[in-house]
Amino acid sequence: MKTDRVSAQEEQANIGTVLTFLREWDRGDGTTRGRMLGTFLTHNAGKTFYELELEFAQVASLFLARLTTWMRLTYMFGTFLGLQLKAIGIFLSASGHDQYLMEFVEDGGVLTLLEILSRSRSKAEEKAEALRLLLAVSRAGRKYKEIICESHGVKAIAECLATSSTDETKETACVLLESLSHGNPKYHSQVYKGLIALMTCTSPKAQHLVLHTLHTVQSKMKTAHPSIVEPLLDTLRSLHLEVQDEAINLISDLMSCDVRSTLLSGLVVLLRPTKEDVQQHQNHDDMIIPESERLKTSGSLPVFVQQAAAAKTIRLLAEDSGEVSRELLSLGVIQHLLHALGNREHTDAQIQASLALEHFVRSYPVIEEQVQGVIGSALFAAFMHRADTLYMNLDETQAEILLTNTVRITEVLDGAEH
Question: What CA–CA distance (Å, rounded) separates 349 from 405?
């Protein structure tokens, strides 16, 4: 009996402490509230729902509501935004119950977080924290994912990813978009198309993350949207190998989808950049690159980088599948690979074209005869010995022959079996 009385007294005292805390909060200015939040963060990090309820005498929701309202009214000034977001994070990450999550969403918390993402004045760490809170909301289930998407969340998150200056923010934004794509059939297509649009962003880190996320999302789908082809092939222009590798992985996965033929045709076309393409990039570089730097970059025109990457992708795809290999042959890939091999302005394009050509020559005897006919016996012997060093043996005349070759392997495909 005595124990029950003590417990009741302790409970009463705890309620008194909480009411005093809330009264101080209601009467306090920004500085007072900032100090109170600092103390709250120190004492409550990592607590479960039940521990927070015990700490706040079963009325922790009253503090969360005050906190959410204060953030909603003051986030545009940014003074205490970092503290506010971290404190809300303690509630949203509290395991054991989603009551706090529901209350936060009902109080307009999601809209406020998305507005923080959209504000150019928000600091990078504030945006990263807002993304983490949205991730906690998204992971709570389908109805929460839908709330984020209904609030134009995909657009806000995508823009934040494209414009962010920190890797942490970019990474969290990508994880959030991936989360929104799972178990969210109503908005899955919107998230998927949002990721496709993000492939055109200029940050190599963002491109790399987007391609990786898109790869994960695409692997769970049976079809691909046709709009994926052009921006995906454009990422092969990247000077960053990790971006190219992610793009090649995604292209490889798409070989089982309905965009396969379009992708293969696109890759073959990239082996033969037009004069207009080259001229356009040279003019672009002339405008943005100082003359002293221009000589160093002339060999790395984006179209030539893309040409080399296309040849590499073609080799990997052909090595992986005889069916894809034959489809590439029907698209006239040999003539285009020989053309790329003649590009003395970009060594890597020559090496990659040579290695891809070697695969086809060794796989189809009929191609061996045709290629030998174009490059001559001596060069062909060097090619068969070390394909990756053939470019060193090419003089200007031989390169011109390759650039203007008119090989039509498609006409002799009947005899070309793997």
Answer: 17
Angle between helices 124-138 and 167-181 (to 10 degrees): 20
Decide if 287 contacts 310 (C-beta within 8 A): no
Residue burial 87-96, b: 16+ Cβ < 10 Å; e: rest:
bbbbbbbbee
List all residues 6 or more positions away from 284 whose beta carbon is below 8 Å from its beta carbon: none
For the chain, give the number of residues.
Answer: 418
Q: What is the pTM of this model?
A: 0.86
- Cα(349)–Cα(339) distance, rounded to whole angstroms? 10
Q: Which residues touch 235 (CB under 8 Å, ≥6 apart)?
A: 199, 207, 211, 243, 244, 246, 247
Write out the DSSP string of 165-224. Answer: -SHHHHHHHHHHHHHHHTT-TTTHHHHHHHHHHHTT-S-HHHHHHHHHHHHHHHTT-S--
Task: Please name the residues in contact with 25: beta carbons below 8 A apart, sequence gap of 6 or more.
Answer: 32, 33, 36, 63, 66
Task: Please give the radius of gyration of the chain, using alpha carbons only, rounded to the nearest integer.
Answer: 30
DSSP state of 411: G
Burial 234-267 (b: 16+ CB within 10 A, else e): bbbbbeeeebbbbbbebbbbbbeeebbebbbebb
Rounded to an integer, what distance in angstroms lies between the CA atom of residue 34 and that of residue 331?
Answer: 67
Q: Among 155, 164, 226, 143, which Cα is nearest to 195's? A: 155
Tokens of 273: 């950049």
pLDDT tens digits, one per residue of 297-327 = 445 689 999 999 999 999 999 999 999 999 9
| CA 381 remoteness from chain centre | 44
Residue pair 133/68 in contact (Cβ under 8 Å)? The answer is: no
Position 300 scores a pLDDT of 64
